[in-house]
Specification:
FMN binds at residues 78-80, 107, 128, 130, 156, 253, 275, 308-312, 331-332. The structure is a single chain. The chain has 17 helices and ten strands. By secondary structure, it is α/β, with parallel strands linked by helices. The strands form two sheets. It has an eight-stranded parallel beta sheet. It has a two-stranded antiparallel sheet with strand order 1-2. Strand 5, helix 7 (135-147) and strand 6 form a beta-alpha-beta unit. The two termini are 37 Å apart. It binds flavin mononucleotide and ligand L3OKDQ3N.
């Protein structure tokens, strides 16, 4: 892996090794992908102030994330269908995160179930919740997260309807995926490593939501399935209901508006994630980094503000921290590593970002995460 020097290298290998329908599901965004592009482009407008002759010999990248010590200000974001990128992908990713000393978030839409992951890792992980129409099922799901000793609940609030991903429709990325389409079969035949990895995995279907998947005869579009299952009536009052079941830390993910940020504070969440779902939902929404400073100004002293969207380097993490985020989630960056090499690829992605962050801190003359604020930026 010596030749791999950046997240883009992992992306390239992921693209070569994983069938196109699964790679595109990760890589692409919704509609015209304006927000997907903005997430990346807007980072590039943020420039650093180089500082020299500062003693930067003792740099410390550790920090606190919702009251727990973490080796880095980094969290692996919830990513649905991770186990389709690499067999038992959720377990590999969670192990890599824990070895690196950072939190891992298991998606409701994971392939490995809560129980599979809990049985195969050593420390608690976070669970991400989608609220479905069947509230009895949602309650049971939260209770499963409690039984699995999850240490935080991440409630995702920006996907009660799904933004259309054109490429997924063209590729037959339906529920379940149309792998038996001739084009997909031919593609899969050229990806023996992926097949081997998938066959080595034990989990094959969406482990958390068994009973809510369509039968093979009702094969349908992702949007039709989401419309039939996800609860579009979800609103702020439901937070109390979730709180009545979940006694632990609650993080609200998918905030892009200062008024919503204030409501998240009022709802008593421990943290919020400024996120546009990686440009996969409301196309035409601003990039996450564009709205971050306003959210931090409005609520940053009342709630822990986390950030995601477009992070592909330690420089991007530094930019988000400088703009007021306390920690960052990464989605595609670690999935590219997983698709390329399994667990070691996730470790590689985390290491790349860690080393880039460390070097960027040094060149900006800072020694600790707590020291990072807008003084590191050339404004
Ligand atoms: C393939 C894929 C699947 C995702 N699935 C989920 C999910 O199940 N739950 C969720 O809250 N967010 C999900 N997200 C959004 C991520 O948690 C995160 O917000 C996003 O990936 C951040 O942008 P980035 O990929 O540019 O880092 C998904 C993202 C990707 C790329
Ligand atoms: C077979 C394709 C799986 C589709 C699952 C659809 C649900 C979407 C939830 C995952 C997610 O958040 C995302 O951005 O994708």
């Amino acid at each position: 892996m010596k030749q791999i020097t950046c997240i883009d290298d992992l992306r390239e290998i992921h693209q070569r090794r994983v069938p196109k329908m699964f790679f595109d599901y990760v890589d692409r965004g919704s509609y015209a992908e304006e927000t997907l592009r903005a997430n990346r482009d807007d980072f590039q407008d943020i420039k650093f102030r180089q500082r020299i002759l500062v003693d930067i010999s003792e740099r410390d990248l550790s920090t606190e994330i919702i009251g727990e010590r973490a080796a880095l200000p980094l969290i692996l974001a919830p990513v649905g269908s991770t186990g389709m990128q690499y067999g038992d992908g959720e377990i590999h990713a969670c192990r890599a995160a824990q070895a690196a000393g950072i939190p891992y978030t298991l998606s409701t839409m994971s392939i490995c179930s809560l129980e599979d992951v809990a049985a195969n890792v050593e420390q608690p992980f976070w669970f991400q919740l989608y609220v479905m129409r069947d509230r009895g099922f949602v309650k049971a799901l939260i209770e499963r997260a409690i039984a699995a000793k999850c240490s935080a609940l991440v409630l995702t609030v920006d996907l009660q309807v799904i933004g259309q991903r054109h490429q997924d429709i063209k590729n037959g990325m339906s529920v379940p995926p149309e792998i038996f389409r001739l084009k997909n079969l031919i593609d899969i035949a050229t990806k023996p490593r992926w097949v081997k990895g998938i066959l080595a995995g034990k989990s094959r279907n969406f482990g958390n939501i068994a009973g809510h998947l369509p039968g093979s005869k009702d094969l349908g579009s992702v949007s039709a399935w989401v419309a039939s299952q996800f609860d579009p009536s979800l609103n702020w009052k439901d937070i109390d209901w979730i709180r009545s079941i979940w006694p632990g830390k609650l993080i609200i993910k998918g905030i892009l508006d200062v008024e919503d940020a204030a409501l998240a504070v009022k709802a008593g969440a421990e943290a919020l994630v400024v996120s546009n779902h990686g440009g996969r939902q409301l196309d035409g929404a601003p990039s996450s980094i564009e709205v971050l400073p306003d959210v931090v100004d409005a609520v940053g002293d009342q709630i822990e503000v986390m950030f995601d969207g477009g992070i592909r380097s330690g420089q991007d993490v530094m930019r988000a921290l400088a703009m007021g985020a306390r920690s960052c989630m990464i989605g595609r960056a670690y999935i590219y590593g997983l698709g390329a090499f399994g667990g070691p690829g996730v470790t590689k992605a985390i290491d790349i970002i860690k080393n880039e962050l460390s070097t960027t801190m040094a060149l900006c003359g800072v020694n600790s995460i707590e020291e990072i604020d807008d003084h590191v930026l050339a404004l």
